[in-house]
Amino acid sequence: MRPAKVLHLINHTSPVETGYTVRTNAILAGLRSLGIQSVAATAPDFVPKLSREQRKAVPAERILHDALHLHHIRSAHVSLALRLLEVLGWMRGAWRLSQAIQTCEARRFYRRAASRGFDLFHAHSPYQNAVYAEWLSSCFSKPFIYEMRGLWEESDAACGATTEEEYRRRRQAETDSALKANRVVAISKALKRELENRGVPSEKIDVVPNGVNTGRFVPRPRNAELAE
Fold first, then answer.
1. Residue-range definition of the domain harbouring residue 221
2. Residue 83: inside a domain, yes or no?
3. Vertex 147, ends 143 and 152: CA angle to 5°?
4. Does a structural domain hold residue 139?
5. pLDDT tens, position by position, 54-102
């Protein structure tokens, strides 16, 4: 019997170092210790958003923390087409065409990644990853879970980085993703309660909070000098 295989749909990874990256790496390592093979596919717009120097160091496939990571490398002609559409954004239909091109590119990338044969699709925040995980689930007849690591729309609203209409749309998209997933992982009990209030069945939500790697971080004696 072969080991179980999981495809993780994540937002970003190194060289973008955040708490999100730390949690992802810990999950991949934890699953590996259980004999579960994991592959991580970053969001299709991850590489294009990097600086030119950073992009040079990110190939289509690489090993990070002993796990295979797949990245969508946008072709030159597609990049040019999207830049032109961005310039022509004021023209009727330019934005929709740009979105259609990016969706097509994303589906091609994820379908190629999923063709390696997986038993489960694990989408991590934000909801866009869950949308593609649901699509892969229907294509390959495999279950998918959605791991909500927070309320991203709330964070953007708090700093004025979104409109009221966009906030409502994203909030509903996050809720829909949780409702459609076979299982949901919430990063805290408070987030689980929030999802329950939105109509997500309590029995399909598991709480997996952040933790500390006690092999790397150990208690140290109190520094009396600093304490003073």
1. 5-75+106-227
2. no
3. 135
4. yes
5. 988 899 999 988 889 999 988 877 888 878 887 777 677 787 888 888 8
